[in-house]
Amino acid sequence: MSVSPLIEGPVRLAGYLLLLLALILRFPQQKADATPVIFIVIGFLFAVIQDIFWPLPSPLQVLGTHVLFFSGLALGWVVARRIPVSRIEKALAFWAFAFAFCSLVGVAIYTFTPSIVHALPSYGYQGTTHHTIGISNLLVYPDGLVVNRNSGIASEPGLFQMVLNLGVAAMLRFPKENFDAFWFFKLGVIGFAIFTTRSTMGLAVFCFLILIGALRSKRLIFGLALSIFLTWEAIWLEATYQQENKLMGSEAFAGRFLPMQTIFSEFITQPLGVGIARYNAQYIEMNWGSFDSFSQVLIRYGFPLALVLSFLLLRSLFETPLSVIVIALTLASQPIWATPLVAYFYFCRRNTSEIKKDQPIAKYQVRSSL
């Protein structure tokens, strides 16, 4: 629900609200700390008040956007009050491997039989048309050419890599039987899936996680050295591609960096944001504030909400450092700050003393809420 493009805005909003209501009614918790939510509500009010006094060409769309963002954050908070981070991360380790394995079916299709992609079921996403096999989405350029990048179950490769890297972070936290053979097999599948996303941020985060893991295991150092030796040519070609097409000095880098730079310049004169309505009227056509979470929050909701979310994420860094680092780095390249999966890590906690009564429902919540 957090990353799939197959669930459109209104359906996604309805799903958030229904799931939120079901969790609250079925699994109430009397002593939940609502302080973070109160500060988030205050942060939202600055934008809502501005929208009230701005001419609204489509008030339902503006209201729906506010509710979608807030319900995603609220759903993350509700789940975090009931499930400790250890359970979530163990689930992420399992699902990251499953999603990575399934995504390789899509990789095989666009690599070896790209001609059949256009015969597969299609879906629309942000004005573009793509194709899917259910377990993997296949992206297509506007001119009809197939994109040779692995987006898995997500809307794009840069988002899919976050799910996979969260799984790697969880695997490093819970190394099964001191890095056994099956652990390395799962890591290899996830690593290959990340490599096929060709996501600059995803590859950088994966390398960081592997280096952290290498400090804990000589087996991982040996496996890393062997992998580099066997795939050196592919690694070199990908590094060259990233340098020429994705990093500083490339057109793709400028296309993302310049709008972000412009938004931060606008933020100096608009520290409280401009709201949803004014953003849609003045900024959305230029794609300002559309490529990353930080500029999106700053231009729409202003410094107060950005400060609250940054503080919450920093606090969670002490609960699960690697996962929060993955989230924070992905926020710099994806506008996903209000999805339930990301929102969970604003509020996550390691201590389970207050949620012992809710532990039997953890399996249900992990599968349905994130």
UniProtKB/TrEMBL annotation:
Record-given protein name: Putative membrane protein
Tagged with keyword Transmembrane: yes
Residue ranges of the TM segments: 6-25, 37-56, 62-80, 92-112, 181-213, 220-237, 257-277, 298-318, 324-347
Keywords noted in UniProt: Membrane, Transmembrane, Transmembrane helix
